[in-house]
Design goal:
Blueprint: E1 5-9, H1 21-25, H2 32-38, E2 40-44, H3 51-62, E3 67-71, H4 77-83, E4 94-97, E5 100-103, H5 105-113, H6 124-139, H7 142-147, E6 154-158, H8 163-183, H9 195-210, H10 216-227, H11 229-240, H12 246-255, E7 256-261
Parallel strand pairs: 2-3
Antiparallel strand pairs: 1-3, 2-4, 4-5, 6-7
Helix pairs in contact: 3-5, 3-9, 3-11, 6-9, 8-10, 9-10
């Protein structure tokens, strides 16, 4: 069986303080049969490891976009063979909508933006900045990705911190400060969580895992990201996962020392 976990996400409850009144009023509940017929399916991998999966997941949860979560563990090779029949790239995440596959986190976000308001900021100048920042995250920060792979449930002391990693972290701080100062916070483009915040959500988890140094304003923004209710949910689920992927675990041990392991055993 391909699906390890199937979960329906219908967004935060009405009394969730993270949901403003307008977004709550604008989404009237549909009959159960209609919801199930039109429900997105989002294929992801282990929450402990999969940074790409986190991006559309946290965006859809925070914006109250209903979907079915379908988790394919990295460590289960047979399920990945089946998954390749669903996702043309064979990678996660992959969104299925009425039999149509949309793969790659950036493509998924743009697909959702065509169908749902508030994925990106509403005004054009702010939206242009947000798309530029998200694209930079999507295609850049190679040293951060390779040296600090996402592993939510552990704390790691790196064996070395080369100049390329320092440049990546410094650039992230500069970018975050630019957005916060331009648009007034508390999120990168103002008062609401949008796709650009979702693209940097995995970075907040990496900062937590590896203790990466940031200036005060950037560190406060990372803390706010970690406090978003769907981010807390993702993190809690990651800690409960018992599966371990050998490749991800070996990568961490090659580049650092685990000083704390908070995962379920």
């Amino acid at each position: 069986m391909l699906i390890q976990k199937l979960r329906q996400h219908e967004g935060p409850s009405v009394d969730d303080p993270s949901v403003d009144d307008d977004s709550t009023r604008s989404s009237s509940p549909a009959p159960a049969c209609d919801v199930m017929r039109s429900m997105y399916q989002l294929y992801i991998a282990n929450k402990n490891y999969s940074s790409w999966s986190l991006r559309p997941w946290v965006l859809m949860r925070t914006l109250d976009i209903p979907f079915e979560e379908r988790l394919v563990p990295f460590e289960d090779a047979s399920r990945w063979q089946e998954y390749r029949k669903i996702s043309p790239s064979g990678k996660v995440p992959c969104l299925i909508d009425a039999g149509r596959a949309i793969w790659d986190s950036l493509a998924i976000v743009e697909y959702l933006a065509e169908r749902h308001g508030e994925v990106w900021p509403q005004d054009a100048p702010t939206r242009a900045w947000a798309r530029s920042a998200a694209a930079e995250m999507h295609s850049g920060f190679t040293e951060l990705r390779s040296r600090c792979s996402m592993n939510c449930g552990i704390r790691v002391r790196l064996k070395e911190s080369p100049a390329a990693l320092t440049r990546d972290v410094r650039r992230i701080g500069t970018l975050w400060n630019d957005g916060l100062q331009r648009f007034g916070g508390p999120f990168l483009c103002g008062p609401k969580f949008t796709a650009v915040d979702a693209f940097f959500a995995p970075v907040a988890l990496r900062i937590q895992t590896y203790g990466l140094p940031l200036d005060a304003q950037s560190a406060a923004y990372a803390t706010r990201l970690l406090a978003v209710p769907p981010m807390r949910e993702w993190y809690d689920d990651a800690l409960e996962e018992r599966g371990r992927d050998a490749a991800h675990e070996a990568e961490v041990l090659q580049l650092g020392e685990i000083v704390e392991d908070l995962r379920a055993r």
